[in-house]
């Protein structure tokens, strides 16, 4: 009886149309002679899923078109920045207007003050800040400030947390480092990571033990890790970190490069009610242009040169185009925008869970607002160790089955997908319909 019911409800596998990849394949060949792996960031190389990476010709709203003219609904969103979707008219107009006034001056502009004020109003813990050009620069600089301010060298990060590719932060990293199975990066000297202490995520006792055994300058953490796939913190975990940092006079650094302006206007710190000493932003705040920000408590930020002894600088920092894009995006992000993102996320979650049930595929679906990961494993995922138990081979098959059905996902299991304000209910339903087939196809 059960088998008969299963047969009736299990979706039949529809063959996806063959995609033409001639141009992408030719471009990838040329790119491989130029760039290591044919790419300018490892996660783009499809190493975790196999096959030839697509070359994107253009994007509009929720869609991208590759160099062969195939179109996809985009649930990667440039790895997080594109909360409004591709080429939003307001962002394009703002960048064009800024470019007409000159692309860079190496001097201050009004747009920096305007964006700085908008960020402080949204994220009050960032009393003072500095603009940089990437998330990597933001975390690297925040850490230097924490060390300079406290006069201590050691800091704690969690396994599977990714904070960009600065030497000291590359130990036990998530994202591409984990995907490529690298324990750590070659070229990082033992000295560079000698003061990096790594503990498991969501483990308060391990954190406490690390504090007891070391003089700690700071804890740096993604409050909602997205680089071991999306793994939310256990209730009470972030407040416990705050208490530990206070008790041991260490700084709490939230790397909100993914979660900032994404999970709420005030980021994860607003969502969980935990105020960090320093915050790192990137992705959404730059509206798809190269921008990172670090900032925090006024007296801590006074340690930064030229006010204080911690050096930090950048030729293109506060770039007018990035400021203009950031301002245009932030203007759109009111509560209604976050409610809409959550509603779309809920629709996706309900659809996927129903598809998982009808196909009897063992998987865990994690979501916070518009950020999500589908882990192919039967057991719950709470940290890096459990995330790594997911079936990456199955994810690879699922990824390609989705791509063949016009849905573009992160090309690795240990990453997060993103819904944008450009997605419609129909787009979400298309995702769910494709995944119903892809779940069967990926068996
Ligand atoms: P960038 O230097 O790549 O702008 O930001 C580094 C960074 C810092 N902190 C967090 C929480 C991040 O997620 C990132 C970058 N994320 C990766 C993928 N999840 C970006 C994609 C890539 O490496 O190409």
Commentary on this structure:
The chain has 16 helices and 14 strands. It has a seven-stranded mixed β-sheet with strand order 4-10-9-8-7-5-6, with helices on both faces. A hairpin with a 2-residue loop joins strand 1 and strand 2. Helices cover 39% and strands 14% of the residues. The chain folds into two domains: 181 residues, Alpha-Beta Complex (Aspartate Aminotransferase, domain 1), CATH 3.90.1150; 242 residues, Aspartate Aminotransferase, domain 2, CATH 3.40.640.10. The longest helix is centred in the last third of the chain and has 25 residues. It binds ligand KE4. Ligand KE4 binds next to helix 5 and helix 6.
Strand and helix layout:
Blueprint: H1 2-9, H2 22-34, E1 56-60, E2 63-66, E3 71-74, H3 89-100, H4 110-122, E4 128-132, H5 135-150, E5 154-158, H6 175-179, H7 190-193, E6 196-199, H8 204-213, E7 216-221, H9 237-247, E8 251-255, H10 267-272, E9 278-281, E10 292-296, H11 298-301, H12 320-332, H13 335-359, E11 364-368, E12 371-375, H14 384-387, H15 392-404, E13 407-408, E14 417-418, H16 425-441
Parallel strand pairs: 3-13, 5-6, 5-7, 7-8, 8-9
Antiparallel strand pairs: 1-2, 2-3, 4-10, 9-10, 11-12, 12-14
Unreliable residue runs: 1-11
Distance between the termini: 23 Å
Strand adjacency order, main sheet: 4-10-9-8-7-5-6
Assign a percent range to the helix content: 25-40%
The major beta sheet can be summarized as: 7 strands, mixed
Order of helices and strands: HHEEEHHEHEHHEHEHEHEEHHHEEHHEEH
How many helices? The count is 16
